[in-house]
Amino acid sequence: MRWPRWLAGAVALCAISAPPVLARSSTPERPHVFVIVLENKTYEVTFGADSPAPYLAETLPAQGALLRQYYGTGHVSLDNYISMVSGQAPNPQTQSDCQFFTDFVSLTGGALDGNGQAVGTGCVYPANVRTVADQLESAGFTWKGYMEDMGTPCRHPAVNSRDETQSAKVGDQYAARHNPFVYFHSIIDDPARCAAHVVDLKALPADLASEKTTPAFSFISPNLCNDGHDAPCVDGKPGGLVSADAFLQEWVPRITSSPAFAKNGVLIVTFDEAEVGDAATDTRACCHEPTGPNTLMPGIVGPGGGRTGTVVLGPKIRPGTVSDEPYNHYSLLRTFEDLFGLTHLGFAGQAGLRAFGGDVFTGG
């Protein structure tokens, strides 16, 4: 996300309280999970009557579940991606999309606080801050991040240098800030491991050919045009939801027709955050989202990342399901972890936080 003029700082601290935990039912056992993350759209624009993305707004919900009360956890982009895979809350630099790829500076000598949060500011988290990818690998599950236009596997700026991927170029619309895995020393400090797991999107079709070659967890980031971020795009495409919808029309059928998806697959199509800018800014939050320890306002001028909505597909989901249960990116991470029997990282372990439950996995 580009910086709008109002990124002036936070104003107040939100109180938190925990909602009751509700039981889940009919959830897939040890599934193949696919996640596609799009950019910067409010629920009303994406799923409204005049949506420029009819495949996402109409066709996909008819095939699965529409989560109407799904929210981002912050502004601008990067802090949301970080939350999805690690449960780490925003800090001033991730809230600015880390224009410089700086090391995280800890204020506690590297120790995490009682909520599993790294206390300080910066972009590349120390090796003791784990991600769901680290958890999966430790538990014997496979994972990959598929990044459109990344080219070189595990591509990221040099630590403590300027991020030159902040703006799209013709033929190269990759954005490191939409690739959460490269912001953790636990992943990038082993270049061979990172290169084997964080790859260009072009690798996905071959991996989908069989259940054996399909990772248990696949995180997919389209390029700056196809994720809806830019409009128009540097290559002349319309961008926005029009290009995002075209991307989904190409890639969703490839995933849902794969052997791995047919056998207990789950596909989640979500957004990093709602619209943000001088004229239209949604900083609403849900789920008693915690604040701190590094920023007063996760949404910079509000408590959260706004309402985006999310679509979930899978054999365990009854077509046309609609849920109005509140969820956010910490809920999403908790869902990943619960599906694979993992412990909860960071704010995914918040007391009372709901993972996707029987309202989503309606039995198929």
Q: Key features?
A:
364 residues, disordered N terminus, single chain, alpha/beta, two-stranded parallel sheet, eight-stranded mixed sheet
Could you describe the 3D structure shown?
The chain contains ten helices and twelve strands. The N terminus is likely disordered. Helix 3 runs parallel beside helix 10. 55% of the residues are buried. The chain is of the alpha/beta class and 364 residues long. The chain has an eight-stranded mixed beta sheet with strand order 7-6-8-1-9-10-2-11, with helices on both faces.
Tell me the Rg in angstroms.
18 Å
| Strand line-up across the major sheet | 7-6-8-1-9-10-2-11
Series of H and E elements: EHHEEHEEHEHHEHEHHEEEEH
Q: Give the overall shape.
A: globular
What ranges have pLDDT less than 50 throughout 5 or more consecutive residues? 1-25
Count of runs of 4 or more consecutive helical residues: 10
Q: On the 0-100 scale, what is the average pLDDT? A: 92
Main sheet properties? 8 strands, mixed
Helix share, percent: 10-25%
Cα(first) to Cα(last) distance is 37 Å
Strand content: 5-15%
Count of individual beta strands: 12
Kindly name the structural category: alpha/beta
What would a concise description of this structure say?
With 364 residues, the protein is α/β, with parallel strands linked by helices.
